[in-house]
Amino acid sequence: MVEIRQATIKDLSAIKVLIKNNDEIVNEDLEALFTVKNPNEEYKMFVAEDDGKVIGFSRVHFYKWNRSAYAINLLVDVGCRRRGVGTLLLKAMEDFAREKEARVLMFDTTVDNVPALNLYLKNGFRVCGYNDKLYESGKTAVYLAKEL
Description:
By secondary structure, the protein is of the alpha+beta class. The chain has helices at about 10-20, 30-35, 85-100, 115-120; strands at about 1-5, 40-50, 55-65, 70-75, 105-110, 125-130, 140-145.
């Protein structure tokens, strides 16, 4: 049975393996999220575990200045997709955003990431914009939002 819990710094090595094994790239210092505090925003990472193995993770930031939450990462191992794990991770981020009294939860993804778009739309998110300059790859980013 899949369990969603808040990630700890001890989960970082498993998260990095998950990222690498799924051909994803995260060009950030994830360890800093556990060691550096920012007075203007709060963030949480969640992991999805199945039988003690990390099979997914997500990360959400809450911005105090405009009471918005932004989902930065949501990744489920390719062999574990289509089992509701992404929805569970999404719900954990949404619960955190509601706890912080965010007025909206937002995401961005590439216009060709159909599985991600389907997940967000199925869970009540709506397209609210695009940006053709966000990604180095030149792909267009689609912004999605869900009012809380």
